[in-house]
Design brief:
This protein is α/β, with parallel strands linked by helices and 397 residues long. It has two domains: 2-230 and 386-393, Uncharacterised protein PF07075, DUF1343 (Rossmann fold); 243-358, Aspartate Aminotransferase, domain 1 (Alpha-Beta Complex). The protein is built from twelve helices and ten strands. The strands form two sheets. It has a seven-stranded mixed sheet, with helices on both faces. A hairpin with a 6-residue loop joins strand 3 (93-94) and strand 4 (101-104). Helix 4 (137-150) crosses helix 5 and helix 6 (243-252) packs across helix 8. The longest helix has 15 residues, at 329-343. It starts with 6 loop residues before the first helix and ends in a 7-residue tail after the last helix.
Amino acid sequence: MFRELSRAVLSALFLLAALPAQTRTGADVITTPEGRAPLHNRKVGLITNHTGRTAEGRRTVDVLAAAPEVQLVTLFSPEHGWEGVLDEKTKDTKDAATGLPVYSLYGETRVPTPAMLQGIDTLVFDIQDIGCRFYTYLSTMRNGMEAAAAHQLRFVVLDRPNPIGGVRMEGPVLADDRRDFVGAHRIPLRHGMTAGELAKMIQGEEGLQLDLQVVPCVGWQRADLWDRTGLPWVNPSPNMRSLTQALLYPGIGLLEGTNLSVGRGTDTPFEVLGAPWCDGVALALRLREAKLPGVTFVPVSFTPTASKFRGELCSGLNVVITDWQTFEPVRTGIHLACALRAQHEKAWDTKRLDWLLKHEPTAAAILAGTPADAIVASWKKDLELFRMRRKPFLLYE
């Protein structure tokens, strides 16, 4: 990694490494003049939201606006809007503190337009991802990279930790012809990479002619989950309220295309799931028999106040993680899907089962009654190939 960094940025990294034991993000690195070397004398458009903050809580917007050698021109927001509180298409707005325009990349367009890019020579990306393929901030990053390549702009990623770790990889690998806004690149559901690493992979594998620069984190190791970073949790989206929910998301979230509530409209999204037609007691018994690592299942009833089955009493499960390190979210999600198919074949609507899974052989195997662990084993070869594919792009040990 260090061979690729400028001497000024390297100096800033060593300076930050001497601070108290806490992960420092790319946003922390650019608080020093040396760390801002990739942005010296640049006219910047910043793709960010409420998660773009330093460890001390200072907004990246304000860091760049105050930097004398940087001209901050334009701001861009992803899904959920500038403040990260919306679950709908968002409109252009203005940042109250700086007065700068904020262009929505989750409204009329999801790609920065030539008009939006007027007057800038550099796009900066600083948004906290959660490590799941269908979380859309990565697609916003990819769209920004492609726009930067098309308009000969520099693209700078201020890197952040992967909250659910950088070691474990799970799930089927996306086929190239399935790529869309909930599938940014040919990666598994749980990919174990940071945004900066994925940017390098996308550039390398897609052959993007792009001046890409990544400002890496300091003090983050691949095995670290968010609890080891010392950084405060900021909800990256309205229903992503804890590390527990981020860990559950790749497995529970993949079922969201079906007629199943995954807890939106409750205090614990992704920790509970169910439906009016579901038998939570029988489902919990079936899943506990599988003895899945790091998780147990408690039958519950709940009534969502929003989203699917709003105002209806649902029977289902509280999915309880007992060990963050051994828990396998995607394997758990597949066991859930197979149990639902066996127990509620007629009531469970699976027409959109493949929407986020994006792997027809896996969806077909679930519907055919194939044992869950046989389905998980079928991904092994592709995951090993992905492990080799990602290796040249990794920035952290």
